Amino acid sequence: MTFAAPAYLIALLGVPVLGITLDRSERVHRQVLRAFGAPDLLAESSQLPDRRQRALVHGLVLAALALGIVALARPLGDVQRAAAGRAGADVLFVLDLSRSMGVSDVEPSRLAAAKQAATTIAHALPNARLGLVVFGGSAFLSLPPTLDHSTFQTFLDAAEPVDVPDPSTNLEDAAGVATAALDTNERDATPSVVLLSDGEDEEGKLEQAIQTLSKAHVRAFAVGVGTIDGGVVPDRDSLGLPVPHRDALGEPVVSHLVELNLQDIARRTGGAYVHWMGAPKDLRPIVDGLQRLPMRVHAGHVRGPEADEFQWPLAVALVLLLLGSVVELRPAIRQGPV
Q1: Predicted confidence band at 326 (pLDDT cuts at 50, 70, 90)?
Q2: How would you class 195 by CB atoms within 10 Å of its CB: exposed for 0-12, middle for 13-18, buried for 19 or more?
Q3: Which CATH number is 295's domain given?
Q4: Residues 16 and 133 grouped into a single domain
Q5: pLDDT tens sequence across 95-138
Q6: Claim: this prediction has a pTM higher than 0.90
Q7: Cys bridge to 235: 142, 245, 251, 334, which one at CB 3.0-4.6 A?
């Protein structure tokens, strides 16, 4: 079972602590009664629940509390997968996870801005098959093209720099993995990639990347994130605290958006380039270009919406509380006023 807000489940750790507290309180209660008078005589003359009934009430309350916490965590029902057939293009997003994508010259960071751009483009292509390649100094296929856009969004949101062991930038490797993941041999197919990057080419393999895409007839659309002025590349010290990334001379490294590289990739492969600054209209040239691509009918499965099922544990919790109230009142109903 999955939860929409799993952080609330941490509160379940407090339930057994509360149970221990109630147990100790019950022991103190019995000691006070023994000091007050004979327990058997007090039990016959009292309308309060006896020890077993109080234990039952405490158990019901604790169980209701645990179920209430589960309800707050919002359990989700099983995802239903339905067959789908759609006419659309294949679009492979190629996301830069290099160290420079952590620069905050666009808020909150270049990587966050790139993910936002990818989400905006994906929403404009409801019938396309979407896939994801992530790269730094090396690249790998994170998600093959799929009709299931919710799965694509999950993989996109989860992509982080720790996914690539080398924090540098190797555009050639990214292009090679992307072309291998796309069906470039099918007749009438026009495979395309959306490159989301700041355009820096640390490995100096921009030309090889363009050649790889061109030979495979893959059209590249590039989204530039960052600013021309740039910003300091972030890093972490030995304690995990944020510090500037420094070069061999000990100077902070400043990264800039290199639009020329991204424009070159797009122009020479028949795509388009845009500088993304957060406005959906900025992406219009790329969306229009992708929508004009030849379409093919794709067969596959898509996930249905995840049903929020918090009402079930909440309903059971309310029943347990009601039952606890009934158990607590039973002695008074049975004996009546003394």
Answers
A1: confident
A2: buried
A3: 3.40.50.410
A4: no
A5: 999 999 999 999 899 999 999 999 999 999 998 999 999 999 99
A6: no
A7: 245
